[in-house]
Amino acid sequence: MRNPLLKALIRKPLTEAGPADGDLAELGRTLERETRSRLGRSLAIRQVDAGSCNACELEIQATANPCYDLDRFGLHFVASPRHADILLVTGPVTRNMEVALRRTYDAMPNPKWVVAAGDCAIDGGALPAAMRCLTAAMRLSP
Amino acid sequence: MPVGPVHAGIIEPGHFRFTAQGETVVRLEERLGYTHKGIDRLMRGSSIARGAELAQRTSGDSTVAYGWAYAQAVEAALEVTPPPRAVWLRAIMAELERLANHLNDIGAICNDAAFALMLAQCGTLREQVMRAADAVFDHRFMRDVILPGGVARDIDAAGRALLERLVHDIARDFEPLVDLYDNTPSLLARTVGTGILPCDLAAQFAAGGYVGRASGRDFDTRRDLPHAPYDKLVFEVPLRSDGDVNARIWIRIEETRQSLNLLGQLLKPLPDGNVLAPITPPKERREGLGIVEGFRGDVLVWVALDGHGRISRCHMRDPSWFQWPLLEAAIEDNIIADFPLCNKSFNCSYSGVDL
Ligand code: SF4
Prior knowledge:
The structure holds two protein chains of two kinds.
Chain A: H1 2-10, H2 23-38, E1 43-49, H3 55-62, E2 75-77, E3 86-90, H4 98-107, E4 113-117, H5 118-123, H6 136-140
Parallel strand pairs in A: 1-2, 1-3, 3-4
Chain B: E1 2-3, E2 15-21, E3 24-31, H1 39-43, H2 48-55, H3 63-78, H4 84-112, H5 116-137, E4 146-147, E5 150-151, H6 157-182, H7 185-191, H8 199-204, H9 209-213, H10 221-224, H11 245-267, E6 286-293, E7 298-305, E8 311-317, H12 320-331, H13 339-346, H14 351-354
Antiparallel strand pairs in B: 1-2, 2-3, 4-5, 6-7, 7-8
Helix pairs in contact in B: 2-3, 3-4, 4-5, 4-11, 4-13, 5-6, 6-11, 12-13
Bound molecules: iron/sulfur cluster.
Iron/sulfur cluster binds at residues 52-53, 55-56, 90-91, 118-120, 125-127 of chain A.
């Protein structure tokens, strides 16, 4: 216990600085401005795996590790859809996840947004719409 | 008590039904299939190259293991031998993958016992592995690098040096974390004696990976069905028989050490030569089998090719097939609050089983 804690006290923080300029920084500023004016607080995200290969989840989990520390940008993951502004969908939306995804979406308060993460959720990716997969955005948009 | 398919964390979907007496679980039923994408069906009629793509997207954390097992199966069917350098590179990738996953798991299991410090520390180590993989193989999960016949990307001296530095850094930073785990009684109180999987069940179900090896099943394809390059490397297969969460953590810790050692050996005498052998689709029906030790256990791939260079059938058997039913047995008589801990210590794949 002592050793890593002590080390953490004396060495530089592991967390890296966010992008200072370029498109990503611009995007960050826009996002901050928009969420501040529309919500007046940080963004809450509920992630749902709708049939991904689990690499998407691992990468989303990794955004919370000390190197990236997503929370400091005002984006945090919540457990309940009732607390969420954004539904983050990964995977091609399998038929078996359709109902669960729809119910999660319905449980979220307005205003709400859906964000598709990864090729699978965006356009079916490498695991295409061939069998029973439909793209997330298509299914959920009214 | 129903739980899922949408869980609280950022994890895969599955439905669990607990029957509890007070806090004690008397029965657990797992319902899977939520991530069923029809991969077996998508494989039918696909080209060999497309099959490799699908295989590496079946269970993302085992991308390399799937890619390699699929490549082995196709190579067996076509009677092609991949160049030695390619096999060497595959093993480097497989060990990197094992390293990343074990580090992540050790942190995540401790996190489920409310010891977040470990997740933060292990998370940074894992991130180093992923970044190195990205720098050297151009993809954090090393996806689409393994192709039937060899590998798509070679590494240069700079890449080798980078990986050597990675192995050195991780070996240096990992040991204090092992000490931390071993010397935190409040954490051990949660893991020792929790979720015991009896040895006879592990043997009956032929459980592979850390689940089997923590419950006395002494099997590792790298040693017992040796294929190149593991037949030329020196390593040990850790084994325990206590079968609890603690044992599964220790097997992971030992395997992490072994992987670091293996990477050291693999990086030294990298054979020369090209990295991709030509593949000519057969004119008649052929079948092949491949088996590779992923971080979870043995990934088995069977492939049948028709006479026109297409896949007529292909099935990929994830090690989790044998581990999911055992989780039902291991959780019995534990309290519900310990389920996340037990579940994480098994860390079965949903996507790999739902197909
Ligand atoms: S986009 Fe699809 S294939 Fe890619 S990591 Fe996500 S779930 Fe896996």
